[in-house]
Amino acid sequence: MSLLEIKNISKSFGSNKVLSNISIFLEKGEIHSFIGENGAGKSTLMKIIGGIYQADSGQFLINGKEVHMQNPMDAFREGIGIVHQELSVADNMTVAQNVFVNREPTNALGFIKWKQLNEDTVTEFKKIGIDIKPDTLVKTLSVGMQQVVEIVKVLSRDVKILILDEPTSALSDKEISNLFELLLKLKESGTLVIFISHKLKEIKQISDRVSVLRDGNFIGTLEKDEMEESTIIRMMVGREIDNLYPPKAKSRDGEIVLETRRLTRNEKYLDVSLKIKKGEITGMFGLVGSGRTEFAYSLFGADGVDGGEILLNGRPVRLKSPKMAIRYGIGYLSEDRKRTGLFVGMDVKDNVVASSLDFIMAKLGFLDDKKSEQVTEEYIGQLEIRPSNCSSLTVRSLSGGNQQKVLLAKWLAAKPEVLIVDEPTRGVDVGAKCKIHSILRALADSGIAIIMISSELPEILGLSDQVAVMHEGRLITVLENDGLTEETVLAHAFLKGGDNQ
Amino acid sequence: MQKRKRRIPVSGRSITLIIIIALVFGVISIIKGELFYSLTNISNVFSNLSYDLLLACGMTFVLILGGIDLSVGSVLAFVGIVITMLLNRGLNVALAIVIGLAVAVLAGAINGVIVSKFNVAPFVATLAMMSSLRGACYVLTSGFFVVGLPDSYVAIGRGYTLGIPNKIIISIAIMIFLGIISTRSRVFKQMFYVGQNANAAYLSGISSARTIILGYAMCSLLAGVAAILMTSSFAMGQASFGTGFEMRAIAAAVIGGASMNGGEGNFVGTALGVILVALVNNVFIMFNGSPNWSTAISGIMLLVAVAFDLIRTRKRGESV
């Protein structure tokens, strides 16, 4: 009998099916990894196991008995604990306070029994073979040790199933090996460890079995001796590449409009040298944290540089602010449309003209209302923004796909020479996605240079003329997209990147 | 394509306010009759309106930017002291006014710089300014009134032009100016962008720091104008002028449609808010017979207005 049996779990968000009919057996005392591309459904599945989301259908069986979890507390009661990707320690409190947050031992008057609290904390850490001063402030610990505090916080609740969601992304090599030792100890004591990571090497090293998800479907589980990296990659990306994408650039001999030479921003990216040509779409592929957005910020003047130079049409430029970059003809469509892109409480027209106020000026600092209306109507038509009379509706009232089109319209209105688009189709439906792709290609055909940052590989391959692969702050390679395959790009992103560590 | 009338920004809220004001006016007129309806009382209600109007309009700028300015009352007092002391020492009236307004702009610009460049919370930055300037007023005057002002200066606040009080003419002229800039001015529009989403504004090439500094400077400038009107009509400068005015200004602007979360606000609404606050104040005083209620009433109205604003935005937040 399996410790945890996942049986026909399905989950949709609105009309978007995130998990369909997932069934997996997970055993006591194993380290079981999950891998899949962004959006494959790993995190959703973990959140369902942890009681944060509820499945639409399907069952969970623990030791053969069906369990229902309505919230994270229920999951804790069943012995399931999650360590999330982002640290959630209170860093100006002590280790003991963090481990026993909200469960501090108290006396009859409700006062905390500090001595016992600290002793209990020492005991919990001893269980995993670590000596720690319980009254250390968490902020004085390394990130790795803070991660351990989180894990102990979860383990101190008698956890039978421990879920770790990308625990290694913030850790150094040494901290990772310490973590792995800890996981092996837990495994020996009979805990089921569920491990999520994007790093193939780590997965191979630590897991007993690995399960692959793709587009919300369970693809298969590999035993330790079957874990070939190439096999895992093939399982991850195995989908048919459809022909939904517009044709590529007719020629690749446009002039170089933007060039970076050994561009460096400390702690963010290093020595990035890249040439961007007119009329082409340069796809920039890399995981979150690979430095791609930070690189784009520097190109857009929103962040400085510590070394190297940016050449625009052959001349070095220092971009001190987005305002200046826009004047130079550079646009940046940001990845988080609600937080850094749109003004959701303002109407569509105000949003469309936000980056091009300088172009629609009449006299004496007054805006030309007619002109902004005209510009807005033009892009509503061109991008097929719905409803078509939305010019004076608030952006908040539009659907996600249409909001994204408004964001794109904002940058089209600014008439850039170089347009950087960061995750241009995140969270939009298929129809809007197609429209945005064809607009981007049409823009490139009209002579604009486009840099498209995306963590969706099919999108990168379907749309780009050249593909720049970033990993951990470095530009690993730039590939011409002549029948590039996902395997080739992933091999660069994961394997080479992994070797560099 | 349908045509849109966007010249005068009258919101649904403004219409509601006009109806409420009319209702209060009507009901109290019936209950209290002459006492309320008398010209003396009405002119009483409107006499202080010009100061409140200027301060509340200034506050509207700052609220649109997502900030708050607690220092307007102190700026009013300080600028008043500066001008009256200069006049008392025989300086030319025009020059004294220019210097006074420059001081006002400077105070606001300092607020703006501290908020935008040093990322100090507007509440804290302007609270500090409020206290510093009020203190400076007492230091400069040792608590005495500044009198001995030239007649030409006193005429600004007390005089009439074509039978209309100068105070009202000046306030209305400023309102018209604000009305014009609020329809189409780029800088004013940029304040909404910054107040709505400062990150997105920055990434759209809008210089948020410059916009914020300008907004606070504008707010203080209007407080400076109010200082001229007040000191000239009282024919003196006084360190305690404008005490507690910030409360009424915030209440009026929020009632008029400005949001504590920024990105919203309009001058027509603010003007109606000012009238409503003054009216409610007057009604309470009439029923209680004591003007001591005034401050408490302003506080309660501010609380109610802000609470409604929060409920409104929270409701909307959920529907995002």
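qc> The interface with chain A takes residues 1-2, 4, 6, 184-187, 189-190, 192-193, 196-197, 199-207, 263-264, 316, 319-320 of chain B (CB under 8 Å).
qc> done
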